[in-house]
Specification:
Blueprint lengths: L17 E6 L4 H13 L6 E3 L13 E9 L3 E2 L3 H9 L7 E7 L10 H10 L5 E3 L15 E2 L2 E2 L1 E4 L5 H14 L5
Parallel strand pairs: 1-2, 1-3, 3-5, 5-6, 5-9
Antiparallel strand pairs: 3-4, 7-8
Helix pairs in contact: 1-4
The structure holds flavin mononucleotide (FMN).
Length: about 180
């Protein structure tokens, strides 16, 4: 496990600006991002679709939530691809990133694996990853979002378990010290 993945002991920085960045093909992850923003009291202008936002915008925020769905067989949502390459070239030291994966547990060998690609690309960026949250409510065989036995963020399944999403977002926000 990367030294920068510090699990639930590290929380978001208090009183620092939040930015949510998402990639979404059919709107599901966009909806989840907006629901998280509403719970956090984040302005709409701080919720960014990576398809239409310059990567440099990430540098404006110390507290970051990165969300992606999974496509193909375990691929990150495609708008993230170039975005991640651009972020890799940036200095993200001091930033804290919490990850949200949206997938479908019936894709049982690649459940939410796209979020694992974000982690893998940025794990050496200097940013801290926070917000591991249990995923044992879902049935799947494998996910690249599980690193050394721990989910690397909040995993959600809006296709089969939409009813769980709100409660899981609430619980996750509590663990990272942000709920109002
Ligand atoms: C062709 C296709 C491939 C998919 N592959 C995966 C996958 O490998 N793993 C997974 O967890 N979900 C997979 N999904 C499910 C999507 O991630 C899920 O529907 C998600 O809610 C889409 O969110 P979006 O609209 O924000 O892109 C796939 C869906 C489709 C239609």
């Amino acid at each position: 496990m990367s030294v920068n993945f510090v699990n639930i002991t590290l929380k978001f920085k208090q009183m620092k600006k939040f930015g949510i960045f998402y990639g979404s093909m059919t709107g599901t992850t966009a909806d989840v991002a907006n629901r998280i923003a509403a719970k956090l009291g984040i302005d709409k202008e701080d919720v960014h679709n990576v398809a239409t936002t310059a990567p440099s915008t990430v540098g404006d925020y110390e507290n970051l939530i990165f969300a992606t769905s999974t496509w193909g067989s375990g691929d990150v949502e495609e708008d993230w691809l170039d975005y991640l390459d651009a972020l890799k070239a940036m200095d993200l030291r001091g930033h804290r990133i919490a990850l949200v994966g949206v997938g479908d547990e019936t894709m049982a060998d690649t459940f939410c694996s796209g979020v694992g690609i974000i982690y893998d690309k940025l794990k050496d960026s200097g940013a801290y990853f926070i917000g591991s949250y249990p995923a044992d409510v879902y049935k799947f065989n494998h996910s690249d979002a599980i690193v050394n036995g721990e989910p690397i963020g909040l995993l959600l399944d809006e296709t089969n378990h939409a009813d769980l999403t709100d409660g899981r977002i609430d619980g996750w926000l509590l663990t990272i010290g942000q709920y109002r």
